[in-house]
Structures are given as structure tokens and as C-alpha cells.
Design brief:
Blueprint (H helix, E strand, L loop, with lengths): L2 H21 L5 H8 L3 H7 L3 H23 L5 H18 L3 H8 L8 H20 L9 H16 L7 H12 L5 H8 L1
Helix pairs in contact: 1-2, 4-5, 4-7, 5-7, 5-8, 6-8, 7-8, 8-9, 9-10
Length: 192
């Protein structure tokens, strides 16, 4: 990519991040182009679809989530690792309004620009679940698809203004449904 094209690309991403933070995933591509002071055709040349734009926006965050899961896999306590991962996921889900619905739709669509990132998140969470199950600290009757569905449901719920204030409590309920002995720290947090 030429230097000027790379600069344009980075500028569009920075503006898109701001617009999406303000308006969620339904932010207008036209609004992003206008605020970036580029034509819609320039925006679409870099990001031909909304999903392609979100893939570029979320790539760093999703890579960091996957890296965190890799680091947690070597921790001493598989149940605490899984619980930490779920907290990281929730923080991510809360950072971009509407992203969870987009990821849930992309999760089973190999043609989606978000598919590879979703698959990496799914795989990382499934590995942490398997490790906790092997230690007997997570339900044995669930798999990675079930965990991803619960993570998505929690992410969607806390994205709703009426449920957002109860995010910690909802997190505890989901963690209690997955882990056979969720940490007492989170029980105390949820009780507040």
C-alpha cells in the first residue's frame, strides 16, 4: 500500500472508531466518510462492506482477546482462567455497542469478513472451557458452541441500556451456570 493510501486508511479507521463508539454498529458509512473528509467511494475502496470495516476496527481487540486466552491457558487454575476470559470478553463486548450481534451473525458465515476473528475467539474460549472441564471445574455437558452462545447472550444483554447496570450480576449468573465453583470474589461483587 502506498504511503498516502496507508495514511488515508489509518485516518478512516480512527474516524470510524470514534463514530462507532458514538453510534454503535449502525453508524452510517456515509457519516464515517463525511467525518473522515473522504468520498464514500474512497471509504468503500478500503472497506467494501460494513463487516470489512468492523474486521479492521476489531482486529486488534480480537487478537488481544485471543492472546489473553493463550496466556490464561498456562495459568494454574483453569476455572479462574475461564472466569478471567469471560470478564475480558464482557469488557470487549461493552466497548463497541452492537458488536456482539454482528459477531453472532458472522460466527457461522465463512463468507463474512469477521468469520476468522470470530472463529479465533470461539476456539480460544473452547480451549479454556475444555481445560476447566478436564479439571472438573466446569460443566461437562457443554461445548465451545454453548459457551460462545452464552458469551454472546451476555454481551447482548449488557448492551441493552436497561440491563447494563446489572452487568456484574448477570456475569455472575452466567459464570455460575458454567463453573462448578465460581470464585468467591465474584459472588461478593454480584451481591453489591
Amino acid at each position: 500500500m502506498r504511503a498516502d493510501a496507508k495514511k488515508n486508511y489509518n485516518h478512516i479507521l480512527a474516524v470510524a472508531r470514534d463514530v462507532v463508539t458514538e453510534h454503535g454498529i449502525n453508524a452510517s458509512m456515509r457519516d464515517i466518510a463525511r467525518r473522515a473528509d473522504v468520498g464514500l467511494a474512497t471509504l468503500l475502496r478500503h472497506f467494501p462492506t460494513r463487516e470489512a470495516l468492523f474486521e479492521a476496527l476489531l482486529c486488534t481487540n480480537l487478537d488481544a482477546l485471543t492472546q489473553t486466552a493463550d496466556e490464561l491457558e498456562t495459568s494454574d487454575s483453569p476455572d479462574e482462567a475461564l472466569e478471567s476470559w469471560l470478564r475480558e470478553w464482557l469488557a470487549f463486548a461493552q466497548s463497541y455497542r452492537g458488536v456482539v450481534a454482528l459477531m453472532a451473525a458472522a460466527h457461522t458465515n465463512p463468507d463474512s469478513a469477521l468469520y476468522a476473528s470470530c472463529a479465533a475467539v470461539h476456539s480460544a474460549s473452547a480451549q479454556l472451557l475444555l481445560r476447566a472441564q478436564a479439571e472438573g471445574t466446569a460443566r461437562a455437558d457443554m461445548n465451545g458452541d454453548d459457551l460462545f452462545a452464552l458469551m454472546t447472550a451476555l454481551g447482548w444483554a449488557v448492551d441493552q441500556p436497561s440491563f447494563a447496570p446489572r452487568a456484574d450480576h448477570l456475569f455472575h449468573i452466567i459464570a455460575s451456570a458454567i463453573l462448578t465453583n465460581p470464585s468467591s470474589n465474584n459472588v461478593k461483587k454480584a451481591a453489591c
